[in-house]
Amino acid sequence: MSHEEHTHQEIKGHKTLATPAVRRLAMENNIKLSEIVGTGKDNRILKEDILNYLAKQTGAILPPSPKAEIVPPPRKTEAAPAAPKDKVRKIPVPVSRPIAFSGKDRTEPVTGFQKAMVKTMSAALKIPHFGYSDEVDLTQLVQLREELKPLAEMRGVKLSFMPFFIKAASLGLLQYPILNASLDENCQNVTYKASHNIGVAMDTEQGLIVPNVKNVQVCSVFDIAVELNRLQSLGSAGQLGTSDLTGGTFTLSNIGTIGGTYAKPVILPPEVAIGALGKIQVLPRFNGKGEVFKAQIMNVSWSADHRIIDGATMARFSNLWKSYLENPALMLLDLK
């Protein structure tokens, strides 16, 4: 209340001041306000005056009448009322039983291509690998391939990106022949290979095989595509010959046909370098004007024998190979 409401009562010619609460207290105890001397301002009768008057009359202080209090409703308990013991639902406990399994381990001998891979990879562990990765914008190459595909199909040849990758690698090897070399077991002599026999890793039912395209340095892109078609057909049928699988000098592994972007390829001895090609993805990139455009991006991962190949040589070769693929017209200047 902003202020107290006062009740004025005229008794025997003088004014008696008291609040409604004091009047009610006096009425409940049959007390006349005229008989009480107020101690408040302007002789106002206070509640203490009523209580003191009662104490003098009865020797005890009577409490004031209780005010009606607003009692909030009881809160609803979150937990449900307990059910009678006889109605409590019992949760069945699962009985653990041993799982019957009739499978048995199987031992098979390592044979064929798998045995050859075990031997080759064991020898590869002796090579200190140096890794280098980069991304290549194949936007122009994708457009060029789309234009050449119908012409290749008219000649009965399936034209993939791999012939371009192989030819660009061969052009790069002409500038950096150390990547097309081999190191003897005693690490005393380096042999620079005249032929670019570039291997292509293939995933077949017989396992991983790496046939190679012979003399890429004198082949056109179309010649490489024809040879790749032949190797893939024979590889799927398991009819590749020894000559197709031996004599490699450099290898490319196209893991992008299965998936993935970057890899850590393992060198195939006696070679000294290998490249792994990731899948082609459509990603946003910036041009020279700072504008965003849609680019066909492929990641490449190189591994080199760090005993005879330093990082700068690998990086320069990768940059040259990358420039041929990003600007396919540049290959025309170096084709022989």
Treating each run of at least 4 consecutive H or I residues as one helix, how many helices? 9
β content, as a range? 15-25%
What is the number of strand segments? 12
Low-confidence runs: 1-13, 65-70
Distance between the termini: 106 Å
| C-alpha Rg (nearest Å) | 49 Å
Report the sheet with the most strands, covering strand number, pairing sense and barrel closure.
6 strands, mixed
Explain what this protein looks like in three dimensions.
With 336 residues, this protein is α+β, with helices and mostly antiparallel strands. The protein has two domains: 20-58, Irregular (Dihydrolipoamide Transferase), CATH 4.10.320; 128-333, Chloramphenicol Acetyltransferase (2-Layer Sandwich), CATH 3.30.559. It has helices at 20-28, 47-58, 112-124, 139-154, 162-175, 221-237, 242-245, 311-326, 331-334, and strands at residues 7-11, 14-18, 129-137, 181-183, 190-192, 198-200, 202-204, 207-209, 212-213, 250-254, 273-286, 292-305. Strands 3-12-11-10-6-9 form a six-stranded mixed beta sheet, covered by helices on one side. It has a two-stranded antiparallel ribbon with strand order 1-2. α5 (162-175) packs across α8. The chain is elongated and about 135 Å long. The model is unreliable at 1-13 and 65-70 (pLDDT under 50).
